Amino acid sequence: MTAAQGDPPADRRSVPAVATRASVRAAYDAIAASYADARREPWPEVVAFIESLPGRTRILDLGCGHGRHLAPLASRGRRATGLDASRELLAIGRDRASSAGPGARSDWVQGDAVGLPFRDAVFDACIAIAVLHHLPSDADRLAAVREVHRVLGPGGRACFGVWDFEGPRFDAIREDRLDLPPEVRGDVEMPWPLPDGRAVPRYYHLFQEGELEALIIEAGLHGETFFRASGNRYALARRHG
Questions:
Q1: Which of 76, 114, 145, 206 is the most exposed place for a label (fewest CB within 10 A)?
Q2: Where do the domains of the chain lie, and which CATH numbers do they carry?
Q3: What is the pLDDT of residues 51-62, one digit of tens each?
Q4: pLDDT on residue 106
Q5: 3-class DSSP state of 165
Q6: Which pLDDT score is estimated for 2?
Q7: CA-to-CA distance for 161 and 120, rounded, in angstroms?
Q8: What is the dihedral angle through the alpha carbons of 194, 232, 79, 67, rounded to the nearest 10 degrees?
Q9: Does residue 233 contact residue 215 with C-beta atoms inside 8 Å?
């Protein structure tokens, strides 16, 4: 299941109340258990990127959540570090990883994508999947990509994945919102239903044409490949020396 499947529809017209990184973190802490149960499969495009990396690669999973992409990293012999803002999702991920046995080696860190608690040039690669679209401002999104640039070593590679405003799933939303200013056109709330019947709103910034490319360039990374698949936009990028 990709990130664009299985969720209730977003509000087509209204612009969400002002979101913050703290409010996004609180939403995922609130839904952690049911979210982790529903989101077990890695995105196939991310698995393809992981498999393209050489062995013994030091890789950061930025916005790792409960670790659905850390598992394929560890099983393929990569030394993986997962970072997420949600304490509850990290706790679930650690518990699942500990039951997977000693061969699944990964580290789990709580932190903020816009200020990573790592030294410069410490990773060979980074995946940032379904994380940029939860950051509630242009400045936050740019800061996060600049942090990826900082922690990658020379020649380090990165894979970014975000939800696609122009994807077919959002046809109705896009039609209703095209007359809104571009800077808020892609900002929506996506409710997550809890088992008790409540729904927790989650902020999303649906990426429009050219937005991801512009972020990569402004952050100083070299964009190698940009493509769309499974309702998502992807960027494969590299840090030069």
A1: 76
A2: 21-238 (3.40.50.150)
A3: 999 888 899 999
A4: 84
A5: coil
A6: 43
A7: 23
A8: 10
A9: no
67-73: which pairs have CB atoms within 8 A and are 24 or more residues apart?
67/93, 67/96, 67/97, 67/106, 67/108, 68/39, 68/40, 68/41, 68/42, 69/42, 69/43, 69/127, 69/129, 70/97, 70/106, 71/42, 71/96, 71/97, 71/100, 71/104, 72/42, 72/46, 72/47, 73/106
Dist. CA 237–CA 148, nearest whole Å: 10
So what's the pLDDT on residue 55?
81
Q: Which residue has the tokens 């982790």?
A: 36
Q: What is the pLDDT of residues 141-151, one digit of tens each?
A: 999 999 999 99
pLDDT digits (tens, 9 = 90+) for 79-99: 899 999 999 999 999 998 877
Tokens of 16: 């969400």
Q: Over pLDDT 90: what percentage of the chain?
A: 78
- The answer to whether the CB of 12 falls within 8 A of the CB of 240 is no
Phi and psi at 205, nearest 5°, equal: -110, 105
